[in-house]
Write a structure and sequence with these properties.
Layout lengths: L2 H19 L17 H5 L6 H19 L4 H21 L1 H4 L11 H23 L5 H25 L6
Helix pairs in contact: 1-3, 3-4, 4-6, 6-7
């Protein structure tokens, strides 16, 4: 097995365990729910297998649904994020993505921040839209998406730089 595969398997397990054990128990005022488990999808290698990412994202979401008793909304939101991820890369990084020179765990730049922001916002918007499934509550969906996105981005950036691999 390659080291990239081992790192991705460990990242999958650790982020999922942290989400289930710690972050699923956080709910501030009914509007702020952090979901840093999507870091697995965000940090998946740029040149990695796209179908492998879709399958892993589905399993990540379905396991979250089993622990959250949420009926498939996490799986759908993870699949949407995994599917649009190349387009977000192309939008945020431009030619750097075309030449496969993107690294997300380097110094935080505007490109990296915009990628993380768009990815988290798309995931959360999809998740909350499917969770409520009524446009009568559009204001509630927007507020939950906004506050949860801000909190999740802060957590994701902290986690990225907390577990940043050392340069040799």
């Amino acid at each position: 097995m390659s080291s990239t595969l081992i790192v991705n398997i460990l990242r999958f397990i650790l982020l999922l365990a942290a989400q289930v054990i710690i972050f699923n128990n956080i709910n501030f005022l009914g509007y702020i729910n952090p979901f840093p488990y999507i870091l697995f999808i965000i940090l998946f290698p740029v040149n990695g297998n796209k179908y492998g990412l879709l399958i892993a994202s589905f399993f990540l979401g379905i396991v979250m649904d089993m622990f959250s008793n949420s009926g498939g909304v996490h799986a759908a939101a993870c699949l949407v994020l995994a599917y649009v991820r190349p387009y977000i890369f192309k939008f945020s990084f431009g030619l750097s993505y075309e030449y496969q020179t993107v690294r997300l765990n380097d110094v935080l730049t505007t490109e990296r921040f915009s990628f993380i922001l768009i990815a988290v916002a798309i995931h959360h918007l999809t998740l909350f839209l499917l969770e409520v499934f009524k446009l009568n509550f559009i204001w509630d969906i927007i507020v939950r998406t906004l506050f949860s996105t801000i909190f999740s981005i802060v957590l994701c950036i902290i986690l990225i730089y907390l577990f940043k691999p050392s340069r040799r």
